[in-house]
UniProtKB/TrEMBL annotation:
PANTHER family: AMP-BINDING DOMAIN-CONTAINING PROTEIN-RELATED, LONG-CHAIN-FATTY-ACID--COA LIGASE. GO terms for molecular function: CoA-ligase activity. Belongs to the ATP-dependent AMP-binding enzyme family. It comes from marine sediment metagenome. Keywords: Ligase. This is AMP-dependent synthetase/ligase domain-containing protein. Pfam families: AMP-binding (PF00501). Residues 1-195 form the AMP-dependent synthetase/ligase domain. The keyword Lipid metabolism does not apply.
Amino acid sequence: GMEKGNHVAILMSHSPEWVINYFAVIKAGGVAVLLSSMLKAPELNSLLRDSDAKILLTEKKFSQMLSAVLPGIPLLRQVLEVEGDSYKIMVAGSSAASPDVDIDDEDEATIMYTSGVLGKQKGVVHTHASLLGTPDIVSAGIRRGREDMVIDPVSFFYLLGLSEVLFGSLIKGCTVVIIPHFTPRAVLEAIERERGSGRVYQGSSFCRLNL
């Protein structure tokens, strides 16, 4: 089981399951280590070592890469694939009640890694307070409410995706429509289908929509 303060790495696709597992970790007092789903084996090896993660939440699609990486990560004691039987057994045996854990605003909640453009990727620690406080700053001037629907192709392991899209939308009561894989067609079809009232894009992605 997980104890307060344990580092739990998340290597998953952009999906509702990512959101469920992320909030489960931080609500239980764990520190979620967000890993890009685009990592290659050497990068994954380096970040898992650096993060001190004891648990890894992942998917079957990453199993081949992980089989080459995990033998070199002695601190990692448990790997759970969300499609696997061990994960399903864990969920089935869990209680719907909130975990009996005291969480302080300044407790660590999330570690996000920089892109490494200027060198080695570095883990940036976010507390519960910073996660809840950042959306109001990032979203200043953006009006959102319960009636709004945000179309989201931005991965949650990016600060923009986690803070602006996920936290910013949920705090305001918005619905978030998750697009697993960005393509201009997928975004435009989601906007038409869901009648999205708000969209969040990275610069290059916005240009590709040719709006």
